Amino acid sequence: MSNEDQGRYIRYAAPAPVEKDEIESIRGNAEERRLHELAEDWALWCHTRKYIGSPKPLQINSIARWAAPMRATASVGRDGVMDAQMQLFNTAVMAQQQGLGRQAFLLYYLNRVRPVKLIAGALSVSRKHVYTLVSDFRADAARSMGSLEQAAAETRAEFQAGRLAYCTED
After folding, report:
1. Is the link from the previous residue into 69 a cis peptide, with omega within 30 of 0?
2. Which end of the chain, N or C, is less packed with Cβ atoms under 10 Å?
3. Rounded to an integer, what distance in angstroms lies between the CA atom of residue 37 and that of residue 91?
4. How far apart are CA 114 and CA 94, in angstroms?
5. Beta strands in the chain (DSSP E)
6. Are 122 and 107 spatial neighbours (Cβ–Cβ below 8 Å)?
7. What is the top-level taxon of the source organism (predicted)?
8. Which residue from 113, 122, 138 is spatially nearest to 34, judged by alpha carbons?
């Protein structure tokens, strides 16, 4: 076989497929992208809070060793501002029921476990189902956050109208 023929018959191995990030798999849905960014901001915010009840990272089997360390960025720092929106989202996340969705959400955002197939293996579901669980849980938490914001606005309006008063001990 000549050198020219040899080059035609050599098969070159393709690189392994790169794990797509969830933000790329959203396919341009602006609302999903906004919720993803909210959840990413919440995860960073949780790592700057020490005493206000942010959820603890999950310890499922040996998956915790794959968790990427979350570092506070220069804009937030170790003592980030007390953001009311993040507190509401944290309350909404904490209020959601226990289940696969919550576990997948916390492993994906709070523990930063990558690649997603590690989460799928730990929860015994498919990789695509992990994204569905995370997306559904994120949407449920955002709806709960909206309800909390509405209730807070109504209470604030009642205080301003004078229908509610602070409890004082006299």
Report:
1. no
2. C
3. 17
4. 23
5. none
6. yes
7. Bacteria
8. 138
Measured from the Cβ of residue 99, the count of other Cβ atoms closer than 10 Å reads: 11
Q: From CA 133, how far away is CA 125, in angstroms rounded?
A: 10
What pairs with residue 113 in β-bridges? 67
How many Cα atoms within 13 Å fall on the side-chain side of residue 152? 11
The answer to whether 100 and 123 are in contact (CB under 8 A) is: yes
Cis peptide before 115 (omega within 30 of 0): yes
What lies within 8 Å, CB to CB, of 133 at 6+ separation is 100, 101, 104, 105, 123, 125
Percent helix, strand and coil across the chain, each to the nearest 5: 60, 0, 40
Q: State phi, psi for 165 to the nearest 5 degrees.
A: -130, 155
113 and 63 in contact (C-beta within 8 Å)? yes
Instruction: Tokens 């909404």: give the residue.
Output: 92
| Of 102, 89, 10, residue with least CA distance to 45 | 89
When computed from its CA atoms, the radius of gyration of the chain, rounded to whole angstroms, is: 22
